[in-house]
């Protein structure tokens, strides 16, 4: 609970430095947090969580077995969705991931295919990268989802073994070559028999997620679904 003095101080600061929406840069008004109400309504939502066989799921067909897959927003260059992801990854705004996770979690827990999820596993970042950024953006998204879905986060069972070069500007094959051996399962017992919701910030080629799914599904009784903040390259 904030003291009255702090509340006055916050109000005073926001007069000088108004808090801005991370998507559109407009000042936030009372009761708005992180993303303004207009952006919450207008940003392009895929609704893929309600659509079995959606384009994200199709992307993984023949590559690995998934129970379901969805992403919250459509991603395009130069849009407010890109600005949100940029803030989350490069401008030290973990609250963007947490907030979107909270919003999306409410939708996912009411979607039949996601209602049986037992735990949320964020795609791990290489420790060096995480240290430089201060946090793992997928873990922030996972934390928000966990809060609204009432399901725990497990960030100990899926680990990254070696540094991978940056994924940008690589062909799909090269991306795959780059990620296929870098994920390992740490704590097998903790995930045996579970329906795992594997989460990442954005799905582009799906190579990173595919590599994760391939080390998780051989474990006894494990099924995997996938959720991301945004989905690139389809339907928009
Ligand atoms: Zn906005």
Element layout with pairings:
Elements: H1 4-16, H2 37-42, H3 55-60, E1 68-75, H4 80-90, H5 94-109, E2 119-122, H6 127-133, H7 137-149, E3 158-160, H8 172-179, E4 183-185, E5 195-203, H9 207-216, E6 223-232
What is the number of beta strands?
6
Catalogue the ligands.
zinc ion
Q: Give the CATH level 1 class of the largest domain.
A: Alpha Beta
* Domain tally: 2
Q: What is the molecular shape?
A: globular
SSE order: HHHEHHEHHEHEEHE
Number of separate helices: 9
From the alpha carbons, calculate the radius of gyration and give it in angstroms. Answer: 18 Å
Q: Extract low-pLDDT stretches.
A: none
Percent of sequence in beta strands? 15-25%
Helix content, binned percent = 25-40%
Mean pLDDT: 90
Distance between the termini: 42 Å
CATH architecture of the largest domain: 3-Layer(aba) Sandwich
Task: Please list the strands of the largest sheet in the order they lie side by side.
Answer: 1-6-5-2
Largest pleated sheet: 4 strands, parallel
């Amino acid at each position: 609970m904030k003291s009255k003095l702090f509340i006055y101080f916050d109000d005073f600061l926001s007069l000088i430095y108004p808090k801005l929406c991370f998507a559109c840069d407009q000042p936030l008004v009372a009761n708005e947090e992180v993303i303004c109400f207009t952006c919450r309504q207008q940003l392009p939502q895929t609704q893929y969580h309600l659509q079995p066989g959606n384009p994200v799921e199709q992307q993984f067909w023949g590559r690995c077995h998934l129970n379901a897959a969805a992403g919250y927003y459509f991603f395009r260059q130069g849009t407010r969705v890109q600005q949100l992801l940029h803030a989350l990854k490069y401008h030290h705004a973990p609250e963007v991931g947490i907030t979107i996770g909270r919003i999306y979690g409410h939708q996912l827990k009411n979607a039949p295919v996601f209602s049986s999820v037992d735990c949320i596993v964020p795609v791990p970042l290489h420790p060096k990268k995480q240290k430089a950024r201060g946090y793992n953006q997928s873990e922030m998204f996972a934390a928000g989802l966990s809060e609204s879905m009432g399901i725990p986060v497990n960030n100990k069972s899926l680990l990254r073994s070696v540094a991978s070069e940056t994924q940008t500007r690589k062909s799909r094959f090269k991306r795959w070559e780059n990620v296929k051996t870098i994920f390992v399962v740490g704590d097998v017992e903790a995930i045996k028999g579970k329906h795992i919701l594997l989460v990442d910030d954005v799905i582009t080629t799906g190579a990173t997620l595919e590599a994760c799914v391939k080390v998780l599904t051989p474990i006894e009784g494990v099924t995997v679904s996938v959720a991301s903040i945004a989905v690139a390259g389809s339907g928009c």
